[in-house]
Every structure is written in C-alpha cells, then in structure tokens.
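User: Run a structure prediction on this.
Assistant: Running it now.
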Amino acid sequence: MRIHANEQTKRSSPKLARLPRVLELIGGSRSWVYQEIALGRFPKPISMGKRNVAWIEQEIFDWIEQRIQESRQVKGAKS
C-alpha cells in the first residue's frame, strides 16, 4: 500500500497541547509550569495568538522521558 505525501505529513505533523492537557500529562500545576519555564527547565509554549499558547506535545513527552531517565540513574554510578 502506497502512502501519499500529504497523508505522510498528516501522520508526522506535530500536535499541540493546551495547558489543561499539559497539566494532565505531567501532574503539575499552572504556577509550577510557568516557574519551571522561567528557570529554563520546562519546554516553552508557542504563541497561538493573543493570550493563547500551546506546547508541542512531543516536547512534553520528551521532557517526561528525560525526567524518568534522570530518576533511574544511580548517583555515583558510571554509565
């Protein structure tokens, strides 16, 4: 079965997540998210217009995966 170029693009195009979805994924609070963004420790949202932002969902998934990996590292162990 051949996939047309536009179908391929649809499947691989990034998905955007609004704040309620982000909070659902990470289990945090709005204030914590914005504090972590200010500290450079959480993905920045993209502007969708006046007072309207969203996050690239894959960046949130990557951030979660990185937290998991960091939590699994044994202090003092060499990889």
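The chain has four helices and three strands.
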